[in-house]
From TrEMBL:
UniProt cross-references to SUPFAM superfamilies, sorted A to Z: Gamma-glutamyl cyclotransferase-like
GO function terms (MF aspect): glutathione specific gamma-glutamylcyclotransferase activity; transferase activity
Keywords associated with the record: Lyase, Transferase
Organism (species): Idiomarina seosinensis
The protein's name: glutathione-specific gamma-glutamylcyclotransferase
């Protein structure tokens, strides 16, 4: 079921006192940067891992046939590397709309490659949101992704662009890579 979190997010943090805010991106925010930023730098957060466990009814699927996109799941001992952007607080108006299907903003500590640490915001779709799909095998997730498409394009494009973005960051994510391997065998272009 879709789950619009736009109104809740507006109430969650008062950003009016900030000149700029760090945003941590781990999914589409790595490769689809449709917002202005002041600075961007690779960073990681601790205790979280990426999982294709969130339903997408608005971007990579439809309300009738939702796709699967990333959220973060608490995983002690793991780190999740992504891209951090320093943005003006008003950019969250756009981001809240883009990430509206089940994602809530949380403050998190993030660490940059030079060891510097900053607090920033991250969008996480928690397990209690109505659009949450939960675990499945890599093969099942790949099959689901291969068959899904929404207003932002094919679900497979989300995964393949993310995999490219992670490669550019020098990151190998076994969850993403496992699904990618299955997906490549399912896509028409890889059968030619
Ligand atoms: C993110 O990229 O940080 C949030 C999830 C997404 O938009 O894919």
């Amino acid at each position: 079921m879709p789950h619009d979190t736009t109104a809740i997010n507006k109430q969650r943090q008062d950003l009016s006192q900030h000149d700029s805010v760090w945003l941590f991106g781990y999914g589409s925010l790595i490769y689809k940067v449709d917002f202005p930023y002041l600075q961007c730098q690779p960073a990681y957060i601790e205790g979280w891992s990426r999982r294709f466990w969130q339903g997408s009814h608005d971007h990579r699927g439809t309300p009738e046939k939702p796709g699967r996109v990333l959220t973060l799941i608490e995983t002690p001992g793991e780190i999740c590397t992504g891209m951090a952007y320093r943005v003006s607080p008003d950019v969250f108006e756009h981001l809240d709309h883009r990430e509206k299907n089940g994602y809530l903003r949380f403050f998190t500590p993030m660490t940059f490659s030079d060891g510097d640490k900053q607090q920033g915001l991250v969008y996480i779709a928690t397990e209690d949101n109505a659009a949450f799909m939960g675990p499945a095998t890599d093969a099942e997730i790949a099959k689901h992704i291969a068959q899904s498409e929404g207003p932002s394009g094919k679900n497979s494009e989300y995964l393949l662009k993310l995999a490219e973005g992670l490669e550019q960051l020098g990151v190998t994510d076994p969850h993403v890579e496992g699904i990618r391997q299955h997906l490549l065998t399912l896509l028409p272009e890889s059968r030619q």
